[in-house]
Write a structure and sequence with these properties.
The protein is α/β, with parallel strands linked by helices. It folds into 3 domains: about 80 residues, PH-domain like (Roll), CATH 2.30.29; about 150 residues, Alpha-Beta Horseshoe (Leucine-rich repeat, LRR (right-handed beta-alpha superhelix)); about 90 residues, no CATH class. It contains 6 helices and 21 strands. Strand 17 and strand 18 form a beta hairpin. The chain is elongated. The chain starts with a strand and ends with a helix. Component of the probable ECS(LRR1) E3 ubiquitin-protein ligase complex which contains CUL2, RBX1, Elongin BC complex and LRR1. Interacts with CUL2, RBX1, ELOB and ELOC.
């Protein structure tokens, strides 16, 4: 609530003050007006928005959601008061604390569950922390939503969204993002490099059309709950083990033939991989990509990773940096890039999760996982152990 006037008891004298009352401070803050206005910002006055910048104290009084005509009259009166116009010519009021009915509490939550209720002509409250807009037939994310800097929870489930703008990453407080049941075919690597790395804890991408997630996905290291059910995933993120805060993972009813080697590093409370067409592992039929002797490039790349030599695009071509980022790890702990032996072995999922949803209708809790070997010697040692343990 904004008022222009004089404090009680000063009807015949004293200066003119601007008084701002809010739901948290109904008593209000008073600011002297005469010769104390630094600047008026009125570019969006026709939309009911304006800002009055004061000199002492140095604060901005921001107005929004006002009637355009009333706002113009109010700003005109403030301008005249600033210039020292005779008080008798100004529409002043007595400045008293606001009543509960006169101030609006900041709205922090809004739930919209139909296209009919979706606001088309007015803005969302900037104070929103939780916004749900489901069953609204949205084909894209409303740019007005991306201006809600206090947003912590965004639920856009059950819409027709095909693509995510990189500017979602500007929502620096966003902790939960629900995109269940949309038409997404990808998840942008730019989002993974944004401030979501530090804030996002819950992500629901279930029931979309995603075939793969980008390499950068595992930079979202604050993720605790990740839902990927009912997509078209042919693989999980290569470095998924980097998600060391992840506790709940569901990727049921996808097209996963096996799990990445890094899957072993996870420490989950609940895991659901039901309904994937997992291949039957066969350690005796390796996929040999080993080149002997190793190329100079392979030797240099392995040394860079093994000895943790610093690198970056200012030192190496970007494609080499990308190759190093996806270096594979042998059972011996050494790195390998394009020269390796690959097999799949069986892993009991209880090794990485406390609660495991059955993988199939037969009651199984095992799934194939990729293993890499940097040399024939490493593969031979594994093979000896495997043959001995299997009689």
């Amino acid at each position: 609530l904004l008022s222009l006037g004089r404090p009680p008891g000063r009807a015949q004298g004293g200066g003119v003050y601007l008084m701002v009352c809010t739901a948290r401070d109904r008593a209000g803050a008073r600011y002297k007006v005469q010769e104390n206005i630094e600047r008026f910002f009125t570019r969006f006055v026709e939309e009911g928005k304006a800002t009055v910048r004061l000199r002492e104290p140095a604060v901005d009084v921001c107005l929004s959601k006002a009637n355009a005509s009333n706002l113009k009259n109010f700003l005109s009166a403030v301008r005249l008061a600033h210039q020292g116009t005779d008080i008798g010519a100004l529409p002043l009021s007595t400045l008293v604390p606001a009543k509960n009915s006169e101030v609006e509490k900041p709205k922090t939550k809004m739930i919209i569950t139909s296209r009919r209720d979706y606001p088309l002509t007015k803005n969302f409250p900037y104070s929103l922390e939780h916004l749900q807009a489901s069953y609204c037939k949205l084909a894209r994310i409303d740019m007005r939503v991306l201006c809600l800097k206090k947003l912590r929870k965004l639920d856009l489930s059950h819409n027709h969204i095909k693509q995510l703008p990189a500017t979602i990453g500007d929502l620096t407080c966003l902790q939960e993002l629900n995109l269940h049941d949309n038409h997404l075919e990808s998840f942008s690597g730019a989002l993974c490099n944004s401030t979501l790395q530090k804030s996002l804890q819950f992500l629901d991408l279930s029931q979309n059309k995603i075939k793969a997630l980008p390499i950068q996905f595992c930079q979202l290291r604050e993720l605790v709950n990740l839902k990927l059910d009912d997509n078209e995933l042919i693989r999980l993120p290569f470095k998924i083990g980097q998600l060391d805060h992840l506790r709940f993972l569901s990727a049921a009813r996808n097209k996963l033939p096996f799990l990445p080697s890094d899957f072993r590093k996870l420490c989950l409370e609940n895991l659901d991989l039901f309904g994937n067409p997992f291949e039957q592992p066969n350690p005796l039929v390796p996929n040999i990509q080993l080149k002997i002797p190793l190329t100079l490039l392979e030797c240099a790349a392995r040394a860079t990773v093994n000895y943790r030599i610093p690198y970056g695009c200012h030192l190496l071509p970007s494609h080499l940096c990308e190759d190093l980022e996806v270096a594979k790890t042998c059972q011996c702990g050494s790195a390998c890039l394009s020269s390796f032996i690959q097999i799949t072995v069986t892993m009991n999922l209880h090794h990485v999760a406390h609660t495991v949803v059955l993988v199939d209708n037969m009651g199984g809790t095992e799934a194939p996982i990729i293993c890499y070997f940097c040399s024939l010697d490493c593969y031979s040692q594994f093979l000896d152990r495997y043959l001995q343990s299997n009689g």
